[in-house]
Design a protein that fits this description.
- The chain is mainly α and 355 residues long.
- The chain has 14 helices and two strands.
- Strands 1-2 form a two-stranded antiparallel ribbon.
- A hairpin with a 4-residue loop joins strand 1 and strand 2.
Length: 355
């Protein structure tokens, strides 16, 4: 079996996305954050709302580059499926472990089952199996059925309003007070990584699978594909708004369009023009950077050291000179810089932790 071709552009874009995750998740103070570094309150799409879809799109692209070629070379599909599912379970397990640490260290009132890594693991499992057993035409059909079917479910649900929409009602019925948000008096719950909205996230991942096929065979089509996705997402948003919490179909197309555009640009600059692959060091240890930084922040919050750093260092010395939001951003950038140094150290020693 011939070695797989590795695209430095994909590693770089994955790494930039992970760095963006760390930045938007860890400001110095949540009371002082620039608007573009916050999620839309409900409907809408800020730059921060692009980060998670970018990562899931790249998950699909990576499957197209890493799994599909093995199938084409005659590898055993059953063995590949087992490998995909085992890795997916490890990612889900890691997400559950992080939430267990949060529940324990921060003395939260309940353990939350859903989360970012759990959603990544689920989408990776399904998209990986689809890549193994389903051809391109049926993959496109799956994407269409997911988008149309999920849109129909949202319409049948009767409203997209917070707490009352169908995904939130389904999550409340399943897990109730174990969700990210729960109003005990009204009996309403909501989780941005809940079960039903994962249908939209899966569509994003499957689109990434097809975009990865374009990168392999017809990279010049990435730009037209991005334009079509953006146009579709913009048009659909007139009837079904962009909404990250619900991962609406219009949001799927809109964010996949921007992700595809970013991949086209990275391919042009890095794979074709051979410019430095900025972000690669984060990209080759993506889950390590995300999970490790999350555990560090939990430990710092639990011990009070995060608040101490903000109040006694960044807020105390920078806020008198600049806007408090800038001081908060500087602390977030310092945290990203620390993890960049850690990932650079691992990369120099060729330490790549595979979940």
């Amino acid at each position: 079996m011939s070695p797989l071709k590795r695209h430095a552009s994909v590693d770089a874009l994955r790494g930039i996305t992970v760095a963006a995750m760390l930045l938007v998740n860890n400001p110095g103070s949540w009371s002082h954050v620039y608007a573009p570094l916050l999620h839309a309150q409900w409907h809408g799409c800020t730059p921060t709302d692009l980060v998670f879809p970018f990562f899931l799109l790249i998950v699909g692209v990576s499957i197209a580059l890493g799994v599909t070629p093995k199938v084409e070379q005659g590898a055993d599909r059953g063995a590949l499926a087992r490998a995909v599912l085992v890795r997916a379970l490890r990612i889900i397990g890691l997400g559950l472990l992080l939430h267990l640490l949060a529940w324990w260290w921060l003395q939260l009132p309940h353990f939350r089952p859903w989360g970012v890594l759990q959603r990544i693991g689920l989408c990776f499992a399904v998209a990986g199996v689809v890549a193994l057993w389903v051809g391109p035409r049926v993959q496109w059909l799956c994407i269409g059925v997911l988008l149309a079917g999920y849109a129909a479910l949202l319409a049948v649900g009767g409203t997209l309003e917070p707490w009352l929409n169908l995904p939130s009602r389904v999550d409340t019925a399943l897990l109730g007070p174990l969700l990210y948000q729960y109003d005990a008096i009204a009996g309403h719950g909501h989780d941005p990584e809940g079960l039903l909205s994962t249908l939209g996230a899966l569509a994003t991942t499957l689109i990434g699978l097809r975009i990865g096929a374009l990168l392999r065979a017809r990279p010049t089509m990435l730009l037209p594909a991005a334009v079509l996705l953006l146009a579709g997402g913009a048009l659909w948003s007139h009837w079904l708004p962009w909404n990250k919490n619900l991962w609406t179909p219009s949001y799927v197309l809109w964010t996949a369009g921007w992700g595809t555009l970013a991949l086209w640009l990275a391919h042009l600059l890095i794979d074709r023009w051979h410019l430095p692959a900025l972000g690669r060091r984060f990209g080759v240890n993506a889950i390590t950077a995300y999970a490790g930084s999350s555990a560090m922040v939990l430990a710092m919050i639990a011990t009070g050291s995060w608040d101490w750093l903000w109040t006694q260092v960044f807020d105390r010395w920078l806020t008198p000179l600049v806007d408090a939001r800038l001081a908060s951003l500087v602390m977030g950038l310092a945290f990203v810089g620390l993890w960049w140094l850690l990932m650079a150290w691992m990369d120099r020693r060729r330490l790549y932790l595979k979940i």
